[in-house]
Write a structure and sequence with these properties.
about 45 residues; mainly alpha; 2 helices; rod-shaped; DUF3149 domain-containing protein; DUF3149; transmembrane helix; membrane; transmembrane
């Protein structure tokens, strides 16, 4: 476990890759939530 923490957060490349992964997950979850909200609306 300490090896993976050092690999991910021990240098700039690992930290930037974790930031990219988390921001990508955030963007994808926002888009999925937006599609879910838009598909649930009833047209008037």
């Amino acid at each position: 476990m300490a090896f993976w923490l050092d690999l991910m957060f021990g240098n700039w490349i690992g930290l930037l890759s974790m930031i990219v992964i988390f921001s990508t997950l955030g963007i994808v979850s926002y888009i999925l939530w937006m599609f879910y909200v838009k598909s649930g609306e009833t047209p008037e």
